[in-house]
Amino acid sequence: MLNLSRRRFVTTTLAAGAVLALPSLSFAEGGSLADIKKRGKLTVGTEAAYEPFEFVENGKVVGYGHDVLQLMAAKLGVELEQMNLPFQGLLPGLMSRKFDFVATSVGITPERAKRFAFTQPVGVVRSVLMVRVDDASIKQDKDIAGKIIGTQMGSSSQPVAEEFEKRLKEQSGKGYADTKLFQAYPDVSNALANKTVDVALMPSNIAAVQMRKQPGAFRIAGEIGQAKLLAWVANPKDLEIRQFINDTFDELRASNQLLELQKKWFGAAMDTPRSNYLPDGAI
């Protein structure tokens, strides 16, 4: 059973006033596929700060989501405009139709699912155990008993590490040798590389980035805790647009284009559910 808790590790506010903080935007106008084709432009709201899903490189928004959006725009025969905006303003902006939908990694929660039309999951984030590739002493999760673990302070990974240590102690009477907390995940990777820690606990997408940037240095030894589902969001009045997104994901999956993009950005296939992913009472 997948955990549907939020992806974000920071508090988000959906106050109506947040939308006022957005830059001056032209309204997308209308909420149908016919409206989008008439405008000749697919306009989406994104917070490009979650590599490799969506991030800025050389001044442009890139990433897994951007590549999928380009295919969607081509399918509609329109241009893509991907607006990089603060996360706090995305959902209020969606309700004001400042863009056609939100294309950023939003965690599916019961509260949000009653107010917004979530698409099928675009990603899943797991808490993985990353170790040095030449360290043969850690082959599975239970092998981290007696080891020094490192993770980001105040992140969602920290309570996962604490909970797993309780399980280790219950099962074997032995926890970690030490837990070291760092300011940011790249600091954790550096500590792993210089042997300050034996294992780094981090979200799977962050681990994929670190392994891509330092090929041959690290490997994944296992995962702990529950996975978190991420999705895009449509206006609840624009269910035709949500259906278009879901149908396009199905088509890209059937043609293996989605798999190729997942390998490109994450280094491996990403298994996301196509049904039973929304909480009770969801739109």
From TrEMBL:
Signal peptide: 1-28
Record's keyword terms, sorted: Signal
Domain Solute-binding protein family 3/N-terminal: 41-269
Name this polypeptide is given: Transporter substrate-binding domain-containing protein
